[in-house]
Design a protein that fits this description.
Porin, 16-stranded antiparallel barrel, 5% helix
Length: 406
Amino acid sequence: MGKSTYQLILVTLLLVGSASRLHAQDPSQAQQTKPSAEVYGFAMLDIGENFRTIDPNWFDTMRVTKLPSSPGQFGENYSTFAGVRQTRFGFKTGIPNTDFGDITTIFEFELFGVGVDEGQTTFRLRHAWGEIGDIGAGQYWSPFVDTDAFPNSLEYWGPTGLVWFRNVQLRWTPIHGDTNFMVALERPGATGDPGVLANRIELQNVTGRFPLPDLTAAYRWGRKWGYLRAAGALRRMNWDDTLADPFDLSGHATGWGINLSSNIKVAKDVVRLAYVFGEGIQNYMNDSPVDVGIKRNPGNPVTPVVGEALGIQGLSAFVDHVWNDHYSSAIGYSWQTNDNSDGQAPSAFKAGHYALGNLLYTPVAGVMFGGEFQWGRRVNFSDGFSYDGYKLQFSFKYNFSQKFGG
């Protein structure tokens, strides 16, 4: 798909979305209700034992990409962990029945540090979002994500093969409800792996550039037994060679993905299923490596290496089971595999496996205690190394919520 075609699609969707439902309601037909505000969140303690090692910055998770990529990388086995990083606080407001539809806002943060704050207990923004009628803007779940596919687990990070990403976006939702449709323009971003040439100065002067926003869309078909959902993502990734030398390492790639998911209700239980495939969409995944890898280009002295959008597949299958009014469990498995490029290091991440089982106890509404066993496996690209992680976690969660008005 050419750049001009891509731009035409984006502009058309914006124009159609802006005009779709920004019309005045008939005041005589509107249901008059008051504005509302809600303060909500929970305090949560996680405590447990790592039976094997993991990157110390991710001590309280089962991130398979953070398991050792070589023997002894993170020291000896057995370590106790404890933290309150899952604690969350949020604020919602609602103004119903304006001339242009309902207005809703959400501001929410937690204490789980990532990026430059990884390993810390610190404030982290989750949502900063507003909607009026069909138009939403801010930071919220990408349409490429199905939040209902996430199991009722204690472990924070979650299944390795699941699409899971909050992003800055402009969204149009012309169809609301259990059956719905949405389209968004999202903030672009991706990562690259220079692989075995990571120390070459020629590659250190290659910088990423994103000339277009990511385009995502999703359609959900809801029924009494559950739903079926299909989502797609399309993106443009460029990189520019800024070093004045005989080489030209500039290039571009197109990333794309399809995410199919479903919930199936069986009595009081829920089966949560998801399958994703594509190329160059790793940063939309819950726990994945880079989007673009280096690839050899023999016979070309000017461009001896090129970038390649890496293929990926992911699967997630979990069951949330209700034993009675006070006890419930979640059990399931998730997997992902990546099509590594030939220039990546032998220790690069190839595949991940993830599974858990838990027992949760709710003595009264808003309070939950539970225990969970977690397993994860990392498989390297081509050096034959793999590593299994095992973790036992206990959590104590106390919810709070207070609504005003409405």
